Protein backbone atom coordinates (compact mmCIF):
# COMPACT_ATOMS: atom_id res chain seq x y z
CA UNK A 1 0.00 0.00 0.00
CA UNK A 2 1.42 3.40 -0.92
CA UNK A 3 2.29 5.94 1.77
CA UNK A 4 -0.47 8.27 0.57
CA UNK A 5 -3.09 5.52 0.71
CA UNK A 6 -1.88 4.46 4.18
CA UNK A 7 -2.18 8.07 5.33
CA UNK A 8 -5.73 8.33 3.95
CA UNK A 9 -6.76 5.04 5.58
CA UNK A 10 -5.29 6.17 8.91
CA UNK A 11 -7.04 9.54 8.71
CA UNK A 12 -10.41 7.92 7.96
CA UNK A 13 -9.92 5.40 10.79
CA UNK A 14 -9.11 8.16 13.27
CA UNK A 15 -12.11 10.24 12.17
CA UNK A 16 -14.45 7.26 12.48
CA UNK A 17 -12.98 6.39 15.88
CA UNK A 18 -13.39 9.96 17.13
CA UNK A 19 -17.11 9.74 16.35
CA UNK A 20 -17.56 7.00 18.96
CA UNK A 21 -15.80 8.72 21.84
CA UNK A 22 -16.66 11.58 24.07
CA UNK A 23 -14.46 14.62 23.44
CA UNK A 24 -13.48 14.76 27.10
CA UNK A 25 -13.86 12.07 29.73
CA UNK A 26 -15.20 14.59 32.26
CA UNK A 27 -18.32 15.05 30.08
CA UNK A 28 -19.52 11.50 30.83
CA UNK A 29 -17.58 10.58 33.97
CA UNK A 30 -17.90 11.71 37.57
CA UNK A 31 -16.33 10.93 40.96
CA UNK A 32 -12.84 11.28 39.51
CA UNK A 33 -10.02 10.36 41.88
CA UNK A 34 -6.40 9.28 41.90
CA UNK A 35 -5.25 5.94 43.28
CA UNK A 36 -1.48 6.19 43.06
CA UNK A 37 -0.80 6.75 39.37
CA UNK A 38 -4.26 5.46 38.34
CA UNK A 39 -7.08 7.78 37.36
CA UNK A 40 -10.36 6.28 38.59
CA UNK A 41 -13.79 7.53 37.50
CA UNK A 42 -17.41 6.44 37.32
CA UNK A 43 -18.65 6.79 33.75
CA UNK A 44 -22.10 6.70 32.14
CA UNK A 45 -22.82 3.88 29.72
CA UNK A 46 -25.18 4.19 26.77
CA UNK A 47 -27.88 2.27 28.70
CA UNK A 48 -27.72 4.95 31.42
CA UNK A 49 -25.97 2.70 33.96
CA UNK A 50 -22.77 3.74 35.70
CA UNK A 51 -19.49 1.82 35.61
CA UNK A 52 -16.29 2.47 37.53
CA UNK A 53 -13.18 2.34 35.38
CA UNK A 54 -9.50 3.25 35.69
CA UNK A 55 -6.44 3.96 33.59
CA UNK A 56 -2.76 3.96 34.46
CA UNK A 57 -1.58 7.50 33.83
CA UNK A 58 1.94 6.07 33.41
CA UNK A 59 0.64 4.87 30.03
CA UNK A 60 -0.32 8.41 29.02
CA UNK A 61 1.70 11.04 30.88
CA UNK A 62 5.44 11.83 30.96
CA UNK A 63 7.57 14.23 32.97
CA UNK A 64 9.91 16.28 30.81
CA UNK A 65 12.20 18.26 33.10
CA UNK A 66 9.41 19.08 35.53
CA UNK A 67 6.71 19.56 32.90
CA UNK A 68 3.91 17.00 32.56
CA UNK A 69 2.78 16.16 29.03
CA UNK A 70 0.91 13.46 27.15
CA UNK A 71 3.25 10.70 25.94
CA UNK A 72 2.79 7.00 25.23
CA UNK A 73 4.36 4.95 28.03
CA UNK A 74 5.50 8.18 29.69
CA UNK A 75 6.00 6.64 33.16
CA UNK A 76 5.57 9.98 34.92
CA UNK A 77 5.44 8.26 38.33
CA UNK A 78 9.14 7.41 38.00
CA UNK A 79 10.08 11.06 38.54
CA UNK A 80 6.96 12.61 40.12
CA UNK A 81 5.70 12.22 43.68
CA UNK A 82 2.31 10.62 42.98
CA UNK A 83 1.24 11.21 46.59
CA UNK A 84 1.44 14.96 45.81
CA UNK A 85 -0.84 14.70 42.76
CA UNK A 86 -4.27 16.28 42.94
CA UNK A 87 -7.17 16.62 40.52
CA UNK A 88 -8.95 19.94 40.15
CA UNK A 89 -11.67 21.56 38.05
CA UNK A 90 -13.78 18.38 38.26
CA UNK A 91 -10.91 16.12 37.20
CA UNK A 92 -10.05 18.10 34.09
CA UNK A 93 -6.54 18.92 35.38
CA UNK A 94 -3.92 17.12 37.47
CA UNK A 95 -1.15 18.86 39.39
CA UNK A 96 1.93 17.01 40.70
CA UNK A 97 5.31 17.72 42.21
CA UNK A 98 7.90 16.40 39.74
CA UNK A 99 11.66 16.25 39.47
CA UNK A 100 13.09 18.82 37.08
CA UNK A 101 16.26 16.88 36.27
CA UNK A 102 18.38 19.34 38.26
CA UNK A 103 17.75 17.79 41.66
CA UNK A 104 14.75 19.97 42.50
CA UNK A 105 10.99 19.39 42.57
CA UNK A 106 8.65 21.62 40.64
CA UNK A 107 4.87 21.85 40.44
CA UNK A 108 3.40 20.91 37.07
CA UNK A 109 -0.12 20.75 35.66
CA UNK A 110 -1.44 18.61 32.79
CA UNK A 111 -4.86 18.88 31.13
CA UNK A 112 -6.28 15.36 31.43
CA UNK A 113 -9.47 16.44 29.68
CA UNK A 114 -7.50 16.84 26.45
CA UNK A 115 -5.70 13.50 26.88
CA UNK A 116 -8.22 11.05 28.34
CA UNK A 117 -11.42 9.95 26.58
CA UNK A 118 -14.33 7.82 27.73
CA UNK A 119 -15.18 5.33 25.02
CA UNK A 120 -18.75 4.68 23.94
CA UNK A 121 -21.24 3.21 23.26
CA UNK A 122 -21.21 -0.08 25.19
CA UNK A 123 -18.38 -0.91 27.55
CA UNK A 124 -16.84 2.13 29.15
CA UNK A 125 -13.11 2.39 29.60
CA UNK A 126 -10.76 5.31 29.84
CA UNK A 127 -8.42 5.59 26.90
CA UNK A 128 -5.35 7.69 26.40
CA UNK A 129 -5.94 9.48 23.10
CA UNK A 130 -2.31 9.38 22.07
CA UNK A 131 -1.88 5.66 22.72
CA UNK A 132 -5.09 4.82 20.86
CA UNK A 133 -4.06 6.78 17.78
CA UNK A 134 -0.57 5.22 17.82
CA UNK A 135 -2.09 1.75 17.90
CA UNK A 136 -4.17 2.55 14.81
CA UNK A 137 -1.00 3.11 12.77
UniProtKB/TrEMBL annotation:
SUPFAM superfamilies: Cyanovirin-N
Source species of the chain: Rhodonia placenta
Protein name as it appears in the record: Cyanovirin-N domain-containing protein
Keywords: Signal
Taxonomic superkingdom: Eukaryota
Endpoints of the signal sequence: 1-23
Upper taxonomic lineage: Eukaryota, Fungi, Dikarya, Basidiomycota, Agaricomycotina
Residue stretches making up the Cyanovirin-N domain: 25-116
